[in-house]
Each structure stands twice: as structure tokens, then as C-alpha cells.
Amino acid sequence: MTSMFETTTNLKKLRSKDDNLLAGIDDLDSNLKEKYNSVLSIDTALNRQIVSFQANKTIPFYRWYKYKEGFSVSLLNHYFSKFGIKPGQIVLDPFAGSGASLFAASDLGIDSIGIELLPTGQELIKARNLLQNNFSDDEFSRLVSWKENKPWIDTENSDDFIVLKITNGAYTEESNVLIKKYLSCMKNENINVQKILLFTLCCILESISFTRKDGQYLRWDQRSGRCWGSIPFDKGEIKHFNDAITEKLGEIIADSKGITDSLFDFSEPTAKRGKINLIEGSCLNELQKIPDDTIDLIITSPPYCNRYDYTRTYALELAMLGVDEKKLLSLRQEMLSCTVENREKKLLEINPSWAIPLAAVESQELLQKILFFLNYKKQEKTLNNNGIPRMVKGYFYEMACVIFEFSRVLKHDARVAMVNDNVRYAGASISVDLILSDIAARFGFEVESISVLPIAKGNSSQQMGEHGRDALRKCVYTWRKK
Ligand SMILES: C[S@@+](CC[C@H](N)C(=O)[O-])C[C@H]1O[C@@H](n2cnc3c(N)ncnc32)[C@H](O)[C@@H]1O
Fold first, then answer.
1. pLDDT at res. 216
2. Of the candidate ranges 194-198, 221-225, 320-324, 354-358, the one whose mean pLDDT is the lowest
3. How much is the average pLDDT of 281-299?
């Protein structure tokens, strides 16, 4: 039997081994900070509003769908102008999301390529592109008629939609009936109008549901009967289907026809719009198909290494777009590793030349020390999830391959601008900004700036208590191809 004394001694030993390993991580982190000290600075022009979607909430087109991870238009315009990006050049966003970078470029007459894996983002980009460039007056008048006459209400027929385990019970019985009638009634329209009606439906699903998007999962309102956790959650107003859909159709018609209230900070593009080339798939497969030295700017924000699961938070929309359980699981695995469920990807099978970035990441000392520590914590059974070491490793190894491809597709002197957050696991702060920049430097990039948002990201109260109050940096990094 172990005595209390022995238990306490063992605990102390464990603690001191933890402390030693953490101190080793801290030392390497300080060295790297020192190495990039001259380019690491707080940029007061950047704030959370500018970097995130918040600033878009009232802007025509961007307000249609709450893509919380989206870039603000002002951030994009800031970097286009800073780097002198002009019509005739090509911008690439390999994690295109809602397509904010593609549309901001297009409004300036600049062509762009976007890669996006999830159907949610893909549909958003395709719908907006269709409305802005290929939607006829007759088709607009069909949307107006749907808004005014609500034809689904009197439809007898109804069409089923996919219900996933994680979306089961998301709507009231009445909303379920109305959605099914709407889906059936849509079929009387031509294909373009159908696409926009389906997109409009996706835009309102959260507002008529018992759920709220909440980072790692969907949060359930107590009225759903699916609520768990000790504190009951009330999301506030749950909109009626008919009100939500007509209001959204109104916004979409007004913004697309340019009849939106002039109070909005928006002006019609004066130049010819730039073309948007959307590639549907994983950038791990698609980037390698882009020819060498062809891109003038990469502006992007990959998923953060923070366990945020896009396939869960966007599950309502994915199900409505026809994603079933099997497809959902495969999308989750194809995503850049950022959840504890991601299995290791066979990167060398995707592209044998990635032996180079994999060797670079194997020799990144700080990252390897962090991975060693996380694996040790896993063996000690003191990690709150055993998938964390695999996720962190997958994140950096995959990002190294992505950055390697960046260095190949960019023209000489062209830049990458990337928004990303640092993270912390088991008390180890992971300087994602410094590690990724250091990897980029090994592929011939000059790290020009690591601009830190003035107020660093807060930490969970649990982590604050256990591991002190160091704030985590949120940054925009710019790298130039030498
Ligand atoms: C932080 S969001 C980007 C948001 C975007 N900047 C915007 O303005 O909407 C990251 C995006 O990467 C996508 N993604 C994740 N893994 C991917 C992969 N392997 N290939 C392409 N896109 C991926 C996610 O679906 C998500 O839309």
C-alpha cells in the first residue's frame, strides 16, 4: 500500500518534472522571441473588431450569414493597400471560409483563388458570386415574389432533410414542417433561384433553432430538452420561420440590387469585378496543383490549434446541404488537424516532396520540446484529453506542408499575411506565431512582421488559476518570399 507520505513525494516529483519541462519550453520560447524581437510588435491599428467578423455584421453581403471566423473587410483592404495589390494580380486564400478575402479582392477588380473544404463556406461563396454576377432580373423577381407571397405556406407537399445525431431536435415541430414545405416548394423554381433559396434557408437556421454556435460544439437551449451541464442555457429569441426567411430574403435582395440603406459603409465597386475561382476541397490536396510563382498575395486565416470543430458548429447548415453522418466524419478528418478527434494524416503519401517541410518541423526545437511535454503529460494521465498531443503535432506538421506550398506558388517578393492565435495546453504556452514564422523562414521567407493585437486573448479561468495569467497573443504575421 502507498503511504500518504509516498503519494505526496510522488506528486512533488511529478510537479518538479513538469516544472523542469515547462522551464525548458520557456527558455526555448524566449530564445525564439529574442530571434524575432525586431519584428514582433503590438500594432494599435489592429483590434479584435478589425481582425474578426464583428465589423462585418452590418455590411451588405457580409451580414447575410454569421460566419464568426470571417475576416473584416477593413483588414483585407488594409493589407491589399499596404502591399499595393492591384487588378491584374492574383490573391489566394487557401482557407477561404466565407470568402471574405475573395470578395474584397473582387470588389477592387482583383482576381482570386479560394480553397475551402466545408460545403457551408463553399455555398456562401457560390451564392454571393451568383447573385453578384449571374442572377437575372427575372430571377430576382422570383425572390421578391417568395418574400411577399410566402408560397411554401400553402404547399401540400414536403421534402425531408438530413437530421444528424448532433442536430436532432434542433427546431420546433412547426419549423420542421415549414422547412420541409419550403424545400418542396423550391423545386418549382429554376436552378439558380433554387440555389439562392437554399442558401437563404441556411442563413436563418441558427436563428430559428434551439442552438447557438459555440466554438467546439453547438450549445443547446434549455427549451430543446437536449440541454446538458449544470447551468441551463437560454439563447433568447428563437425566430419564427416565416419572419426569419422573409427578413433574410429582403436583405439579400436589397444588398444584391444595391438598394441598401446608404448608412452602410459600402460602395459599389467602380472597377470591373475581379474573378473568383473557388476550389472545393482540402488545401492539402489542392495547393499542390497551383503552378509555381503565380500568386501575388496569400491572405488567410487557417483554423487555430484550439479544438474548434467547424463540422460541429456548422452542423445545421451542413445537414441542410446534404451532408450525412458518413460524410461529416470524413470532412472532420480531412480538415486541417485542429480537434482532438483528428487522426494523423499520411502527408508523404499526399506529396512525397513534403519530406522537406517534415524535416524542417522535426528540427524545430521548441515545437519538439512542447510535443515531448504533452506526450509525457499523456503518459502521466494528467492531460484533460489524450488527443491533444496528436492534434498539436498534426497542426504544425500539416501547416509546415501548407507553408512549403506557399513558398512555391508565390511570386518572388510576394507576401503571406496570416491571422492566427497562440494557444496553451497543460500549462505550456504554444507560440504558434513564432513557431510558424520560424518554419516559414526555413522555406526562404523573410519574416517581416508579427503584429500583435493590443489586447491579447484571455484564457479560460481554469487555466488562469492553474498556470498564471500570461495572455496569449493573437497576431497577423507577414512573410515575404525572398
Ligand atoms: C478561420 S476560418 C477562415 C475564415 C475566412 N478567413 C473568412 O474570412 O471567412 C478557417 C477555414 O478553413 C477551412 N478549412 C479547414 N481545413 C481545411 C482544409 N484542409 N482545406 C481547406 N479549408 C480548410 C474551414 O472550413 C474554415 O472555413
1. 76
2. 221-225
3. 98
Model confidence over 69-85: pLDDT tens digits? 888 889 999 999 999 99
Q: Give yes or no for residue 418 CB within 6 A of ligand 1.
A: no
Q: What confidence score (pLDDT) does residue 423 get?
A: 97
- pLDDT digits 0-9 by tens, 215-236: 778 999 999 988 666 678 999 9
With a 6 Å cutoff on the Cβ, whether 402 touches ligand 1 is: no
Q: How far is the CA of 305 from the centre of ligand 1 (A)?
A: 12
The three-state DSSP-derived secondary structure of the chain is CCCHHHHHHHHHHHHHHHHHHHHHHHHHHHHHHHHCCCCEEECCCCCHHHHCHHHHCCCCCHHHCCCCCCCCHHHHHHHHHHCCCCCCCEEEECCCCCCHHHHHHHHCCCEEEEEECCHHHHHHHHHHHHHHHCCCHHHHHHHHHHHHHCHHHHCCCCCCCCCCHHHCCCCCHHHHHHHHHHHHHHHHCCHHHHHHHHHHHHHHHHHHCCEEEECCEEEECHHHCCCCCCCCCCCCCCCCHHHHHHHHHHHHHHHHCCCCCCCCCCCCCCCCCCCEEEEECCHHHHHHHCCCCCEEEEEECCCCCCCCCHHHHCHHHHHHCCCCHHHHHHHHHHCCCCCCCCCCCCHHHHCHHHHHHHHHHHCCHHHHHHHHHHHHHHHCCCCCCCCHHHHHHHHHHHHHHHHHHHHHHEEEEEEEEEEEECEEECCEEECHHHHHHHHHHHCCEEEEEEEECCCCECCCHHHHHHHCCCCECEEEEEEEEC
Can you tell me the mean pLDDT for 287-306? Answer: 98
